[in-house]
Amino acid sequence: MFSFQFNVERYYKRIVEKLGKPDVVIGASIHPLAWIAAYKIAKHYKTRYIVEVRDLWPQMWLLNGEKKSYEPMVLFFGMIERWAYKRADKIIYSMLYGNKYICGKLGIDKSKVALIGQPMDCERFDKNASAKARDIPEEIRKFTNHAFVAVFTGYFMEYEGVHVMLRAAKELYDKNMPVKFLFIGSGKEEEKMREYAKDNGLSNVLIYERISKELMPAILRSCDVCLAHCSTEGKRESFKYGVSKNKVNEYLYSGNPVIYGRDDPQDPVAKYEAGFVIEPFKPEQFVEKIEKLYHMAPEKRAEYGRHGQEYIIEYHRVDTLVDKLLNAWFEDGWA
């Protein structure tokens, strides 16, 4: 983190020589030291300073129980957080309830913040879904061919619910339900996942390595249901300020219904009738919703997918967010 800050401050003038003076400088909290680097550049060029919140530092550590409020790293990043929010001309956040923390807990004025979701390049998704269909790996193609497939993509982590989904796969396998589960990704739970599938003889499960992001649209559209989960067992407040997952946006735009294990019944998946939000860590609820979708008329199932696409186009499409960003950056006419 410090290396990043040091190199930005060291080389930004060379970037400006090539690209010109910035109209606005944005610090995105991949980590908070990016906020400091962005502020120094904005101050040097007397231009607008924007703080973009990707993760709630250090609040995320406290919510998931990783650290205590008195630990040095929490105190250090909390100090940077307050420092950056105070100096920002605008604070942009992408998690649905981020304002409850930024404004409600930290006391930042509501006029200073703006909710702008993660962008979705719909045209690129559509193009790849068509152009890359032939490039789907043969093993995946054979596994999904002429089958009803529930797909998970991303990190193989406990909070992502991969073990919950595997237990659902076992229950459906034991019921002789013709439903297959495709897992694509990587993560520390991968070995345990493979052991579970092998020990239980789950021929309805394929665990596949990470693939190119350009291939994902074609794979998602070759499946029937998208599975997601976001909760930490024993720390159910970990994501109480919302989550902002590009993966879920891709799920919603894929045209498939989504089943999402979340502690938020008002998540867009449920609110916009793009699928079902279920209680986390409940494999039986995954089973219930998958069975419901399997027996559902195709045209009814397609309605969920259409609702998801409509939501993405209205709230996350790139060309829609461009105007929102410009308004947030320059709403007072500053230039």
How would you sum up this structure, described in words?
It is a single chain. The protein has about 325 residues and is an alpha/beta fold. The chain is built from 15 helices and ten strands. The chain has helices spanning about 1-20, 35-45, 60-65, 70-85, 100-105, 120-130, 140-145, 160-175, 190-200, 215-220, 245-255, 270, 285-295, 300-315, 320-330, and strands at about 25-30, 50-55, 90-95, 115, 150-155, 180-185, 205-210, 225-230, 260, 275-280. Strand 8, helix 11 (about 245-255) and strand 9 form a beta-alpha-beta unit.
How many distinct helices? 15
Largest sheet: 6 strands, parallel
Number of strands: 10
Low-confidence stretches: none
User: Average pLDDT, to the nearest integer?
Assistant: 94
Radius of gyration: 22 Å
Strands of the largest sheet, in order across it? 7-6-5-8-9-10
Measured by DSSP, the beta-strand proportion falls in: 15-25%
Specify the overall morphology.
globular
Estimated structural class:
alpha/beta
Assign a percent range to the helix content.
Answer: 40-55%
Compile the SSE list and pairings.
Layout: H1 2-19, E1 24-28, H2 33-45, E2 48-53, H3 59-63, H4 72-87, E3 90-93, H5 98-105, E4 113-115, H6 122-131, H7 138-144, E5 148-155, H8 162-174, E6 179-186, H9 190-199, E7 205-208, H10 216-221, E8 225-229, H11 246-253, E9 258-261, H12 268-271, E10 275-278, H13 283-295, H14 298-315, H15 318-330
Parallel strand pairs: 1-2, 2-3, 3-4, 5-6, 5-8, 6-7, 8-9, 9-10
